[in-house]
Amino acid sequence: MTEQPFGEFWNTYPIRKNVVAARESWRIAIKKVSPETILEAIKQYASDPHRDPSYTPFPARWLDEERWLDGPTPPRKLSEQEAKEYEIEQARIRDERERLRSAQIAQELQQAKERSVPMPEAIKAELIAKGIKRINHEQG
Question: At what angle do helices 3-12 and 35-47 cross, to 10 degrees?
Answer without folding.
Answer: 10
